[in-house]
Amino acid sequence: MNYYETKQRTDGKWDYTCNNRPTGYCCEFKPFDEGFVKNYHVSEAEVEKHNRFAHKYHSHGHDTEQEACECYKEYQLDHKLRFSKSESEQRKCKVCGEWTQNFAEVDCRLITLCDKHNNREEVSKLYEASNWSMASW
Q: How many helices (H) and strands (E) does the chain have?
């Protein structure tokens, strides 16, 4: 199991962590090396995205637990947000209740949103990075 949660450091600052280690933007930027890209089948698009957000990585910590959660939320939205459409079913939009086949996905969490609301701004309002755990892949 991987455990994702905020942790307070000995200096009083907060980080978002996975198994007690800073994760997301709460750690120093490390470029992908060739071996990692090859062994884990990382696409050129993923490498480019990783490098594009290099300036957001940090090790300074956050003043509050909420700031650490918001930092990880930003990481998730930058790296894990996908928009898609169901081919076989409709659900009600989480914002307005309109029936739709559209949804956003953030790291295995689905949010049903109509054409009008299926965008990053609305997902950001609804998605919350909080303490949670999930089985390792």
A: 4, 9
Distance CA 71, CA 25 (A): 7
Nearest to 106 by CA among 133, 132, 129: 129
Q: How many angstroms separate the first and last alpha carbons of the chain?
A: 9
| Cα gap 22→41, rounded to integer Å | 24
Kindly give the confidence (pLDDT) of every residue in the chain, 137 residues in length, as a single tens digit, with 9 standing for 90 and above.
Answer: 888 899 999 999 999 999 999 999 999 999 999 999 999 999 999 999 999 999 999 999 999 999 999 999 999 999 999 999 999 999 999 999 999 999 999 988 899 999 999 999 999 999 876 554 443 33
What SS3 class is residue 92? strand
The SS3 assignment for 55 reads: helix
- pTM, full prediction: 0.85
Structure tokens of 68?
């650490």
Nearest to 129 by CA among 55, 54, 78, 91: 78
